[in-house]
Amino acid sequence: MKKQALWLAVAASLTILPALAQDNEDWGDDEWDLEAPSSALPFTGFAELAIGNRVVGTDLNDALTLGDARIRLERQEQFGQVHVDAKVDGRYDAVLEDWQGQIRELSAQFSLTDKLDVKAGRQILTWGTGDYLFLNDLFPKDWQSFFAGRDDEYLKAPSDALKLSWYADVVNVNLVWTPKFDPDNYLTGEYFSFFNPAAGQLVAPNPPLSAKAPNSDEWALRLFKTLGSTELAFYGYEGFYKRPIAADEFGMPTFSRMRAMGASVRLPWGPGLFNAETAYHASLDDKDGILANIPNSQWLFLLGYERELVTRLTGAFQFYLEHTQDHDLLLSNSPAPQWEAEQNRTLLTTRLTWRNSTDDLTLSLFAFYSPTDSDAYLRPSINYRLDDHWHMSGGLNLFMGADQHTFFGQLEDNSNGYLRVRYHF
Amino acid sequence: MKRQIRLALLMTLPTIFAGTAMAQMSATEIVKKAELAAYYAGDDGRSAARMLITDAQGRKQMRQFIILRKDQSDGGSQDMLVFFSRPADVKDTVFRVVKHTDKDDDRWLYLPGLDLVKRISAGDKRTSFVGSHFFYEDVSGRNTEQDNFTLLSETDSAYVLEGKPKDPSSVEFTRYEVTIDKENFLPTQIRFFNAQDQEYRHVEALKIETIQGHPTVTHSKVEDLINGGSTEMQFRFISYDLGLPEDIFTERSLRTPPRQWLDLKD
């Protein structure tokens, strides 16, 4: 009943909002609206209907993988020198059969001196050079949204943090303090099943998996500088693994401590762009790799190249390596060594993006393939911008793998297709 | 007698050659001067801009943004920031360009929803600028070194030059005719021709205003003559020589727009 009411509400808003938001598309001579929002509404935002379904059936979850009726409201205000940004989402989620509200952004931004910026509050944070691969960006991700085919924006989950940015001739510095650790929105079983090594099989737990997040804080640091066309950055992080890949004494999933350090470079090379990034993830609770329930330290490496292949068709390629330290010890101490990843896990990705000449249609194919895990993840998508208000998207999330326990292989039964219709106002 | 004629011919030849050379020189000179007038007015500049895009079916779209520009040298490299405010889906998106004359431009796009500074690889600059009929190159200026110019005709008020690409495979046109106003050296009309020598793209300055002594195109229109559709672009709140600091043309401004420089007043 609730569900029907909401679909009705969204359907109604999709019809009413366009009428309210009718802006002056014929350009009055003086209608520049520099300050005012572009419509009669006191905020901007969008209404969206999204639906996604499994490609093949599974006993573990319902066929529905995505069922969002969402309203987004955004508003910005300037109070003296302080800039306040608010973005709020409300949705009925037909997969969870429940209402969900989320503040995506509620932040205040100001400059303390002419070289020091402060941003405090809920905010989205991103850095690093990888495309869908994160070595030094240890801000929270929402993997469930990513795999379900929500807009790319939702891959990044918000942080409640204080960000200081200091800009100097020598180097620029970002320091982010998150008072309470923000984990990823990892797979819980609600939308998607996953492999459980303890059970030795795919599971979709009900009640859903919920690991207790530590109450401690997180620190993230970036030093960066642009020399000519070359961008250099160094990174540091002190906190926890973002997914509950450790186990406590009762065998329950938990977050163990982690410290990361890394560096990246990005520069034009030949006709395209080259990037390289590395990171060392030190497992602070198991520095020697002895404990079976705590992940081992890892070295991560990334090489990437992107270029325009022909007019309006861009191709990108990434090579990623995850090297696990003390792999021998990991195997000898693991209760299930047959399901541990190889010492050197490699991943290749390609991205092809084509835009039409009027720039309103985008076709994209992103592919992950792991030679060591023998698994893959294909993300073809199509985006059509009918006008300034109506946008349509569709795509597939196809997982495949030789084994049930590998990163993408475990998601095979979750392969899905989705459609989204959005009205911006 | 014959000898005299030959002598006379020999004597006039250098003048004819010199004359041709002068015409060629002046075509290039005119183009260089037009480039400075159209893209390098003042040492820096700021303007609000909006585009009205009408597609072949008559559907309309709108883009609104503020451009900040600073020249590193006249006719040389330029720093540019484009802050989008409309429509809703591109609001707060920022485009940063370092235009180079000797290599590919550096380009970045800031996507606020992801807090992502996306670097854009060098690409064909003759593709749609944010969904309009203008190309990236129309906004940032086509490098004059890429074409050979000849003076086609000249009236009391304007030059008409022909540009032919040095590398025809790199562009969709075979030639274009550009009309340059003699008084202010602004290009007032550009007609692009395809391989069938059919005009397929038409750019026109609809209004020119003098701002702080710089004649400036404040309203222009580009038309797609084959598929239909057009885009009008208007500039307002233009000012030159604001003394824009160099350090705002950095990554900082993508995440934290320099609001004191974006506060527009006529």
Describe this structure in words.
The complex is a heterodimer of chains A (425) and B (266). Chain A is built from 3 helices and 22 strands. Chain A has 425 residues and is mainly β. Chain A has one domain (2-20, 42-424): Beta Barrel (Porin). Chain A has an 18-stranded antiparallel barrel. Chain A is globular, with a radius of gyration of 23 Å. With 266 residues, chain B is of the alpha+beta class. Chain B has a single domain (2-261), classed as Lipoprotein localisation LolA/LolB/LppX (outer membrane lipoprotein receptor (LolB), chain A), CATH 2.50.20.10. Chain B is globular and about 50 Å long. The N and C termini of chain B lie far apart (73 Å). At the A-B interface, strand 1, strand 5 and strand 16 of A face strand 1, strand 2, strand 6, strand 13 and helix 3 of B.
Layout of strands and helices, then pairs:
The complex is a heterodimer of chains A (425) and B (266).
Chain A: H1 2-20, E1 44-54, E2 64-79, E3 82-93, E4 98-113, E5 116-123, H2 143-148, E6 159-167, E7 172-178, E8 194-196, E9 201-203, E10 218-227, E11 230-240, E12 246-247, E13 253-254, E14 257-269, E15 272-283, E16 298-310, E17 313-324, H3 327-333, E18 344-355, E19 361-370, E20 375-385, E21 390-401, E22 416-424
Antiparallel strand pairs in A: 1-2, 1-22, 2-3, 3-4, 4-5, 5-6, 6-7, 7-10, 8-9, 10-11, 11-14, 12-13, 14-15, 15-16, 16-17, 17-18, 18-19, 19-20, 20-21, 21-22
Chain B: H1 2-39, E1 44-54, E2 60-71, E3 78-86, E4 94-99, E5 106-111, E6 116-120, H2 136-140, E7 147-154, E8 158-165, E9 175-181, E10 187-193, E11 199-211, E12 214-224, E13 230-240, H3 251-255
Antiparallel strand pairs in B: 1-2, 1-13, 2-3, 3-4, 4-5, 5-6, 7-8, 8-9, 9-10, 10-11, 11-12, 12-13
- Count structural domains of chain B: 1
Uncertain ranges of chain A: none
Quickly name the level 1 CATH class of chain A.
Mainly Beta
* Domain tally of chain A: 1
Largest sheet of chain B: 13 strands, antiparallel
Q: What characteristic shape of chain B results from the CA principal axes?
A: globular
Quote the CATH topology of chain B. outer membrane lipoprotein receptor (LolB), chain A
Helix content of chain B: 10-25%
Mean pLDDT of chain B: 89
Strand order of the largest sheet of chain B: 6-5-4-3-2-1-13-12-11-10-9-8-7
Oligomer type: heterodimer
How many helical stretches of chain B?
3
CATH uppermost class of chain B? Mainly Beta
The SSE string of chain B, one letter per element, is HEEEEEEHEEEEEEEH
Strand content of chain B: 35-45%
Class from helix and strand fractions of chain B: alpha+beta
Q: How many angstroms separate the termini of chain A?
A: 28 Å
